[in-house]
């Protein structure tokens, strides 16, 4: 993640939280008081977002010292100390919530992605995210998916054509939609078509699209769709796929399984910031 993408969001989050000042911390702790704190995982999982959390502390105290005890992307057990933070006490306490919110969210995404990737191990399928991310946090959410072992679907409306049911309805037919897209976009932009039926799969292949998204199909339907595509396009399964049935979908031979719940239904990993008592 390039700092130009990350820093503006963290700055906004800190302004939102601190406002005109941290009235609790400023009343309790004299300015310049040093503190030592530790980031501790309260449950097992995969850690993602340490650089983001560190940036939150540095924005309030450029001289803060942070020592990592685990690498980004590590799998940890409950009780693992992730990092030690030493610096100006007011800055550490005021940055705590923003740092933890982001670290917990990204680690939750990375952990869920890791678990799904493990569930489909042995099959040549990739686990991908979607655009169902928290507004403003897409770069971070998708980064966490990669840390978990997944791959990124398109980042936005600008980097891949994806013709969905409403586009087909607006154009009048799938063929018209594909034709309109080809007149407008360059040859380097891939075209994906969402197919709800096997008949739409057949039509998409005849039209020569690059990717066919098999939407809300059963594993048996996905297997038949993959057979019909016959390697002439990338196949992607999405919709109705859960941790319990994902392996059945992987067994169909589909190339990609995309899961919106990796980022839209995040279960944050429990991580705390524990300050050492002042002696």
TrEMBL record:
It comes from the Bacteria. One of its GO terms (cellular component) is cytoplasm. Keywords: Glycosyltransferase, Pyridine nucleotide biosynthesis, Transferase. Its EC number is 2.4.2.19. The keyword rRNA processing does not apply. NCBIfam families: nadC (TIGR00078). Belongs to the NadC/ModD family. This is Probable nicotinate-nucleotide pyrophosphorylase [carboxylating]. It comes from Calditerricola satsumensis.
């Amino acid at each position: 993640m390039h700092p130009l993408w990350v820093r503006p969001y963290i700055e906004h989050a800190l302004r939102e939280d601190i406002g005109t000042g941290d009235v609790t911390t400023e009343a309790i702790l004299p300015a310049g008081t040093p503190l030592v704190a530790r980031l501790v995982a309260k449950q097992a999982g995969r850690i993602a977002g340490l650089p983001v959390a560190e940036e939150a502390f540095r924005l309030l105290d450029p001289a803060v010292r942070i020592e990592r005890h685990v690498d980004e992307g590590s799998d940890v057990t409950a009780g693992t100390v992730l990092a030690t933070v030493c610096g100006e006490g007011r800055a550490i306490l005021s940055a705590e919530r923003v740092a933890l919110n982001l670290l917990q969210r990204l680690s939750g995404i990375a952990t869920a992605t890791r678990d799904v990737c493990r569930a489909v191990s042995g099959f040549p399928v990739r686990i991908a995210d979607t655009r169902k991310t928290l507004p403003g946090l897409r770069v971070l959410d998708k980064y966490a998916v990669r840390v978990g072992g997944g791959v990124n679907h398109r980042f936005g409306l600008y980097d891949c054509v994806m013709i969905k049911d409403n586009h087909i309805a607006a154009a009048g037919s799938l063929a018209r939609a594909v034709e309109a897209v080809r007149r407008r976009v360059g040859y380097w932009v891939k075209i994906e078509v969402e197919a709800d039926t096997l008949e739409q799969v057949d039509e998409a292949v005849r039209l020569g699209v690059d990717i066919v998204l098999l939407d809300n199909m059963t594993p048996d339907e996905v297997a038949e769709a993959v057979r019909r595509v016959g390697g002439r396009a990338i196949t992607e399964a999405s919709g109705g796929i859960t941790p319990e049935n994902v392996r059945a979908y992987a067994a169909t031979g589909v190339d990609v399984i995309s899961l919106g719940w990796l980022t839209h239904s995040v279960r944050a990993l429990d991580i705390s910031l524990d300050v050492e008592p002042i002696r």
